[in-house]
Amino acid sequence: MMSPCASCMGMHQIESLVEESVRLLDRGAHNRSLDMRSLLWNLYDYQRGYDTGNTLFRVATILVRHRYLYAFPLSEHPDYLRHPDYFTALKSRGFEEIPVDPGKSWHDEKNPTAGYFCDPVREWGASFSEKNDWGDLARPLLYCEAGSPLWKQFVASKALTGSDAKQPERIDRSNLFHSVIQEALRQGDDKLAAEWYQVGIPYEFGSADSKDGARLKNDSHLIKIREIARKHRLHALPVDRGFHEAEDVDLDNPFLTWWWADFLAEDENDGDRART
After folding, report:
1. Final residue belonging to a domain, choices 121, 136, 165
2. How confident is the model over 154-181, as pLDDT tens digits?
């Protein structure tokens, strides 16, 4: 029996960061106008850049509610009648990634994942489904993400129309980070804001070369994030930073030097003043 992270791999900090951010945005969705669908798409687009597993089904009910993840009866798959043996076999399983071409057994970059089959009761048990409020989703269903190959097939067939047929808007990474950090602080979750400052952002921009580093220093969202970080001391809150632990920070790196160096210097000066 697999866990709801499907096939978890290495970057657990990133997996947890995205999962907790999804939960955070869901809690805040009723308080203000958020383009939840685009925010969710961009969070998972960020996660796909790292060595992570499929964690969608940790928060599937949230993703369906905000129409980032779509659920259909398995029989509505566009290729259901062309590959009856394949789809009949799925019904005896709990979870399966469905490739672009279900007729080919091998999944690779030429036949990537297009959607998912999930039966949460078979995979994790009835008590799990009840405890996590799967409700009407606690049955065998076909799923696809907005913007995915299977979603595009449903759009082409008019099974999805209107706003559901629109590609989620791509948000600049720095704007995404700024939005999530602001929402975390608005909800009083300083720790999640600090995880984005210390983990999420350095993972994304920590390999910037001199040219990109110079550009990032002038990014209005990153400048505002640094101002927020100084005010709330996000750089100093204890979080699991993975390979960006403080003693491992390469201050010869143009981005990380800017991101950390003056904050570290301020802390050292504060410590010197406290000792005198």
Report:
1. 165
2. 999 999 999 999 999 999 999 999 999 9
**Burial of residue 72, with CB atoms counted within 10 A of its CB: 0-12 exposed, 13-18 middle, 19 or more buried:** middle
135 and 210 inside one domain: no
User: How distant, in Å, are the alpha carbons of 71, 159, 175, 272 from that of 146?
Assistant: 11, 13, 20, 53
Residue 18 near residue 58, CB atoms below 8 Å: no
Amino acid at 235: H
Q: Identify whether residues 154 and 19 lie together within a single domain.
A: yes
- Strand pairing of 95-99 and 141-145? unpaired
Q: Are residues 181 and 110 in the same domain?
A: no
Asked whether residue 134 falls in the same domain as residue 197, the answer is: no
User: Over the stretch 109-127, which tens digit does the pLDDT of each residue have?
Assistant: 889 999 999 999 999 999 9
62: domain range? 12-165
Q: Nearest-CA neighbor of 36 among 59, 58, 62, 72?
A: 62
Residue among 135, 244, 160 nearest 200 (CA): 244
Cβ partners under 8 Å of residue 52, min gap 6: 8, 9, 10, 11, 14, 15
Joined tokens for residue 148:
């995915």
